[in-house]
Amino acid sequence: MEMIAGDIGGTKTILALFRSEESLKEPVAEATYASGAFSTLEDVIRMFLSEHGIKDAKYAVFGLAGPVMGGKAVITNLPWVIEESRLIAELGFTYVHLLNDLEAVGHSISLLDGSDLATLNEGLQDKTGPKAVIAAGTGLGEAYLTFNGSHYVPHASEGGHTEFGPSDEKEIELLKYFLKKYDHVSYELVCSGSGIPNLYAFLKDKKYYPEPEWFMKSLSEAKDPTAIIISTALDENSSCDICKGALGMFVSILGAEAGNLALKILPTGGVYIGGGIPPRILGSLKEGRFMESFFRKGRLSKVLHSVPVYVILNPRAGLIGAAEAGFEEMGMLV
After folding, report:
1. Is the dihedral of CA 276, 282, 286, 289 positive or negative?
2. What is the pTM of this model?
3. Within 10 A of 285 (CB to CB), how many other CB atoms are there?
4. By CB count within 10 A, which of 92, 243, 295, 327 is most buried?
5. Which of 204, 207, 244, 236 is nearest to 220 (CA)?
6. b/e per residue 202-232 (b: at least 16 CB within 10 A)
7. In whole angstroms, how far apart are CA 212 and each of 148, 238, 243?
C-alpha cells in the first residue's frame, strides 16, 4: 500500500512516499519544497510525483498549519485553500485525509525515542497521563493528547491565537505597542518565527537597545529576517544586543505560554516543545529563562515542577505523525 504523507507549513512543505507502517522513519522517497514558491498544494504534489516517478499512490494524508474543518483547511500563513475532495478529483487519489499539523506531531510522540528528544525538566512522568504539544515555527501551534486505554489520541487546537498575556513590565509595554497596530494581539504574533522580527522592531522602536549599523544593513538584505536575528543572537562573538534581547524575550514568552498550556491540560505525561525554532536555540532554552517562565504560575508553580518537559529534535516529527495517522486510517478502511 503506497501512501503520500506531507507536513505542510507556512515556510516549507515536506512530502514523502511510504509503503509500510514499520518504516515510518525511512520513507521510500522524500523532498522538501519552499511553500511560498507554489500557488497551490496540488502543484507541489504534482512536482513531487513527477520527480520521483510515483504513479500508484492512491492514499494521502497531510498535516496542515491551520484549522481543518469538514475536510477543508485554510493555511494560516499561506494563501492556500486545501480540500480533500479537490485533491482526490485533481490528483487521482482514492482517499485523502487532512489533519492539523500539531495533531500530526501528536501522532509522532509515541514513535520518538531518546535521540529525538532533549529534556528540559525531568519531572515525574505518568505513562498514561495527558500530554501537551506546543510548536514554534512560522506560526505557533498547540495540541494535546489523551490516553484511551490502549493508545494516545491527539486533539488539535488553535491555542496559539489566544490573546497574549504579558508577565512583566516590558511585556506590558510590548502589548500596548502592538495594540496600537492590531485589534488582536495573539501569542503567535510575538512568539513564532514571524513574531521574532516583531520583538526586534519593538525593542528598536522603544530604544531598549541601539541597532548596530552593520546589522541594519544585513537585516535589510536578508531574505529571512528571523533566521539572521536568531543566528546573530546565538553568535558568541556578536555584539548585537538587540538580537540577543529579541531572542531572550521569545524564549521567556514561549516558556510562559508552554506553562499556560500545562495548567490547562495538566499534562502529567509531559509537555513537548516542537517546531523548527526550538532545536536551533536549544542552548538558550536550557539556560534557565524558559523553565523559569514555565514555572512562574503563583500558587500552582509547584504543580508544574513535576511535569516533564522535552524539546522535539527530530525535524520530521510532523511528517512521521501524518504518516502514522494515515496508516491508522487505512487500517480502518481495508
Report:
1. negative
2. 0.94
3. 22
4. 243
5. 204
6. bbbeeeebebbeebeeebeeeeebbebbbeb
7. 54, 11, 10
**DSSP character at residue 308:** -
- Average pLDDT for residues 184-191, to the nearest whole number? 98
- Distance between CA 145 and CA 107 in Å, rounded? 9
The SS3 assignment for 281 reads coil
CATH of region 3-106+316-333: 3.30.420.40
- What letter represents residue 87's amino acid? L
Q: How far apart are alpha carbons 106 and 97 in whole angstroms?
A: 16
Residue 212, Ramachandran bin (φ over 0: left; ψ between -120 and 50: alpha; else beta): beta
Average of per-residue pLDDT values in the chain: 94
Using one digit for the tens of pLDDT, what is the confidence trace for 203-255?
Answer: 999 999 999 999 999 999 998 999 999 999 999 988 899 999 999 999 999 99
Q: Where are the domains of the chain?
A: 3-106+316-333, 113-313
Beta carbons of 250 and 196 less than 8 angstroms apart? yes
| Nine cell digits for residue 312 | 522535539
In the prediction, which pLDDT does 333 show?
Answer: 54
Task: Tell me how far apart the alpha carbons of residues 192 and 122 are, in angstroms, rounded to a whole number.
Answer: 25
Q: Please report where in the chains the cell 541601539 appears, as a residue.
A: 210
Alpha carbons 44 and 25: distance in angstroms, whole number: 22
Residue 76 has pLDDT above 80, yes or no: no
Question: Strand, coil or helix: what is 82?
Answer: strand
Model pLDDT, residue 238? 87
Packing angle, helices 84-91 and 41-51, rounded to 10: 40
Into which CATH architecture does domain 113-313 fall?
A: 3-Layer(aba) Sandwich (3.40)
Least confident of 18-22, 259-263, 269-273: 18-22
Whether the per-residue pLDDT at 319 is higher than 90: the answer is yes
State the Cα–Cα distance between residues 219 and 204, nearest whole angstrom: 13
Q: Return contacts of 146-154, CB within 8 angstroms, 24+ apart.
A: 147/269, 151/110, 152/106, 152/109, 152/110, 152/269, 154/102, 154/103, 154/104, 154/105, 154/106, 154/107, 154/109, 154/321
